[in-house]
Write a structure and sequence with these properties.
The chain is mainly beta and 196 residues long. Helices cover 9% and strands 40% of the residues. It has one domain: Lipoxygenase-1 (Sandwich). Strands 1-10-9-3-7-6 form a six-stranded mixed sheet, with no helix packed on it. β11 and β12 form a beta hairpin.
Length: 196
């Protein structure tokens, strides 16, 4: 049975039979809040493109641009973190974007993988995270079985990016930390700089 996480809660990841996980799917999802009639008839305003990204850290820091996995770099050079593609609209049920992590083969120097969501051209379009609802991050095993999920329920009015959560190594085991930290960064590169 999947664990429902609270903000700041940490959980160790393992198979249902207790063994070590070798691969996980990190699913991120969100819906756009219904807007006013004026908003709905403005075609430019209707475009709401959220982007999930992952940052691979060494000793808590991102040391190179190639450790940023996002719509402009869908796969880490190690092949262990792969973004499954950019959803331009976020429409439909289920995960809007997924990132697959091969935990077993992540190079030893990486101790943390942070997952964030930004809004493409948020400032130009007057958009913010507070305009989203039903936002979540969940961890599934390699068969798609959900192990844990963190639903974000805070007020993110005026915030343009969000640190959803992180996978991290602790005593040789992988754990997940539900973070839910909003920022006012305007794009993936700005929020990445927080981890340098």
């Amino acid at each position: 049975m999947a664990i429902s996480l609270q903000k700041g809660q940490k959980v160790e990841l393992h198979k249902s039979n207790g063994g070590d996980l070798t691969k996980v799917i990190v699913g991120l999802g969100w819906d756009t809040v219904q807007q006013t009639k004026e908003f709905m008839f403005n075609k430019e305003a209707q475009a709401f493109d959220c982007d999930a990204s992952a940052f691979m850290l060494q000793n808590g820091k991102m040391v190179a641009d190639e450790d940023k996995i996002y719509f402009g770099n869908l796969s880490h050079f190690s092949g262990t973190v792969v973004h499954m593609g950019d959803s331009m609209t976020g429409e439909g049920d289920g995960d809007d974007e997924q990132i697959v992590v091969d935990l077993e083969h992540v190079p030893e120097e990486y101790d943390k993988i942070v997952f964030v969501v930004t809004i493409f051209q948020a400032t130009n379009r007057g958009q913010h995270i507070g305009m989203l609802q039903n936002a979540y991050i969940r961890i599934c095993d390699d068969k798609g079985q959900e192990m844990c999920k963190y639903d974000l329920n805070d007020n993110y009015e005026g915030m343009t990016a969000l640190v959803f959560g992180e996978l991290y190594r602790y005593n040789g085991k992988w754990k997940f930390n539900a973070i839910g930290q909003p920022t006012k960064d305007s794009n993936v590169h700005e929020i990445a700089n927080r981890f340098r």
